[in-house]
Amino acid sequence: MSTYVENPEAGAAFLSRITFNWLNSMVLKGYKQPLVQEDMWDLNESDSTAFINEGKKEDEKKKKKKDKKKEEENYPNSWLIATLYKTFKWILIESAFFKLLQDVLTFVSPQLLKLMISFTQDKSRYAWEGYLYAVLLMVVALLQSLTLQQYFQRCFVLGMRVRTALMAAVYKKALVVSNDTRKESTVGETVNLMSADAQRFNDVTNFIHLLWSCPLQIIISIVFLWLELGPSVLAGLGVMVLMVPINGFLATKARKLQVSRAAKSFLCTINRCLNNDTHFCRFDFQV
Question: Are residues 26 and 113 located together in one domain of the fold?
Answer without folding.
Answer: no
